[in-house]
Every structure is written in structure tokens, then in C-alpha cells.
Design goal:
The chain has helices at residues 7-16, 22-37, 48-76, 94-102, 116-126, 131-134, 167-176, 190-205, 249-255, 313-319; strands at residues 84-88, 108-112, 137-139, 150-156, 178-187, 209-212, 241-246, 261-272, 281-282, 287-288, 292-299, 302-309. It is an alpha/beta fold.
Length: 328
């Protein structure tokens, strides 16, 4: 899946910015970013201008990360074909746009978010999308008010706004609304991974099967957080991935950036009702040396390194294009 915003979404976002002065918008984006670093949540978005600043600054990376995750889910579950979507904490709808890109047959979409400014912009942007997205229900309120289940439930960058100790219970609650697959995406930080790790354990306990990134339902072999004492040095790492995406001129302005691309680091888990394909996941950039390739892998046996010698030409050719996040 292309990590760049779809042309229709990019055009709709440009249209929403018509007549909006860029310097105040960039100042609003910086204020929101600083607030997030200090522990604020999306409730800090209170005006249409705030919503636009949030969308320009964060929507491209959220969309790109969700595209990458959905691609992994499709790889693990090629027969998965959800026709209904529940996007919890939808914000401006980036995950919903990624979902209809991944599964164009999506017929019914529901976006849920407490923030009225974000909901209003999400509704405006969705009108430019395909029929299922254009007719999406965009609601405030809580899950408990809904009377539905969805083939795909997604919550992207939602757990980060909650205390870490709530990640497990919230994930278990989301699982109750899931017919086929649940996807959780968080920042690729130790804190983001800690929430994903707690959610993963709760979901497995509830009967879910992990489809990605893990290729097993065993206990996660990673330490709970960076710096936690372990005899194995590898276990002081955390599981995360990276997606490169292009930046528009406005995106660069909002971020104060000088390069036309961004690398979004994210952590995630995708779980399903049915068991998924198995294998091993590449957890870090591949180390390429003259003797060969070294892969850091995670599978049902735990964390391990795999070396493929350059002299083993057939195997080397087979795996040399595999990279961080791919199945080995």
C-alpha cells in the first residue's frame, strides 16, 4: 500500500485549508505537539483551526502507519475481507481512509471520537472518499452506546491517551466489538510498546490469535520496558517498526521540517478470531556485510539471530530483499 495520502484525501485537506493563514496554523501545530510531549491529549484540539493543524501535522503519518499495519494483516490473513469498520478514537479519520484503501469492498464505517472539532473535520474529509467512507457514521460518545459489531475494529494512537494500566482492559473491551480482526497502533516508543504488550497479553487471554507482528500466541519475549534488568541484552529492546512517508509543503511547514519525508515509528498488534499464518518476523534493519545477511527474528521460539551466507546463493537471493517488519 502506498504510504502517501490518497489524492482525494490530500485534495480534501487542501480544500479545508483554503483561506487559512499558514503561520498561525503552524504555531497551533507546534503548540499541540508540545502539549502531547507534556502528556496532553487530543482534547487540546478545540477549534476548527486546531483540527486543521492536527490533521496536516499528524494525519499523513497516522495514515502511513495504518497502511503498513493493514498490509501486514492482509499478508498474514489473505482471506480476510471485512465489510464493516469501527474506528475508535478516529480523530480526523486517517485509519478509516487506510482501511478502505486496503479493503475497497468496505460497505459500512463508523467513526467514534469524543472531540467535536475533529469529528467535524473528519466528516468534511470523508465526503471526498469512496461511497462507504462518504456515508460513514461519525459519532461522539462511548462504545457502550453502540449496538453493533464490526468485521474490523481499529484504534490508532488511542491507548497513548490513557494510563498504561488501562491498556489491557480497553483492549479486551474492544475485542468484544470485533467479529473478525482488531488492530491497535501506538507510537513506536518504549511507552507505546508497553501498552501494546499489555493489550496483546489481555487479548490472547480473551481468546484472540495474534496475526501480526507476532507469528505466535506465546508470551512476548521482549522486556516490559527499556532498561528493565534481564540477563539477555536483546531483551532490553522494544518491538517497533518504521514507515517512511512523503511530506507535502504544508506538512513540512507544520513540522518545521527541511526534508521532504518523515519516518514514522510505530508499535502495533493485529489479532483475529481465526489463527493466522506462521513464520518469523524481522524486528530490526537487516545487517548486511560481505559474508552475508543477519536478521533479528522473533517467532514461537523467542528472539534469535538468523545468518544467511552470501555464498549460499539461492537462499541469499530469496531473502536479500526482506527488511525490517517483513516476514522471514
Amino acid at each position: 500500500m502506498n504510504p502517501a495520502l490518497p489524492a482525494a484525501l490530500a485534495a480534501a485537506l487542501d480544500a479545508a485549508l483554503t483561506g487559512v493563514a499558514r503561520k498561525p496554523l503552524a504555531a497551533a501545530a507546534r503548540k499541540l505537539s508540545e502539549g502531547y510531549r507534556q502528556g496532553q491529549t487530543s482534547r487540546a484540539v478545540v477549534s476548527p483551526e486546531d483540527a486543521c493543524a492536527y490533521a496536516v501535522a499528524r494525519m499523513p503519518a497516522t495514515y502511513a502507519a495504518c497502511c503498513a499495519v493493514f498490509s501486514r494483516l492482509m499478508e498474514a490473513m489473505p482471506d480476510l475481507a471485512p465489510r464493516t469498520l469501527l474506528d475508535v478514537g478516529a480523530g480526523t479519520g486517517a485509519a478509516s481512509w487506510a482501511a478502505v484503501t486496503a479493503w475497497p469492498q468496505m460497505e459500512s464505517l463508523t467513526m467514534l471520537d469524543h472531540n467535536p472539532a475533529l469529528r467535524a473535520l473528519a466528516r468534511k474529509l470523508a465526503q471526498a472518499g469512496p461511497p462507504g467512507l462518504a456515508s460513514a457514521e461519525i459519532l461522539g460518545g462511548d462504545l457502550a452506546l453502540l449496538d453493533m459489531k464490526a468485521g474490523l475494529v481499529v484504534a490508532s494512537y488511542v491507548l497513548a491517551e490513557l494510563p498504561e494500566e488501562k491498556a489491557a482492559s480497553v483492549a479486551a473491551e474492544l475485542w468484544r466489538w470485533t467479529d473478525a480482526a482488531l488492530v491497535l497502533v501506538e507510537p513506536g516508543t518504549p511507552q507505546g510498546f508497553a501498552r501494546i504488550r499489555a493489550a496483546r497479553a489481555a487479548l490472547i487471554a480473551a481468546g484472540a490469535h495474534v496475526a501480526a507482528p507476532c507469528t505466535h500466541d506465546n508470551e512476548c519475549p521482549m522486556a516490559r520496558s527499556v532498561g528493565e534488568s534481564r540477563s539477555d541484552q536483546n531483551q532490553s529492546d522494544w518491538c517497533h517498526f518504521s514507515q517512511r512517508l512523503p511530506r507535502s509543503r504544508d506538512h513540512m511547514l507544520m513540522k518545521g521540517a527541511s526534508v521532504p519525508f518523515e519516518d514514522e515509528r510505530y508499535a502495533y498488534v493485529a489479532v483475529t478470531r481465526e489463527p493466522a499464518a506462521r513464520g518469523a518476523r524481522i524486528l530490526a534493519p537487516v545487517l548486511e556485510t560481505k559474508p552475508g545477511l543477519t536478521f533479528k527474528l522473533c517467532d514461537e521460539t523467542g528472539l534469535r539471530a538468523q545468518f544467511v551466507a552470501a555464498r549460499d546463493k539461492d537462499e541469499y537471493r530469496r531473502v536479500r530483499k526482506r527488511g525490517w517488519g517483513d516476514l522471514f
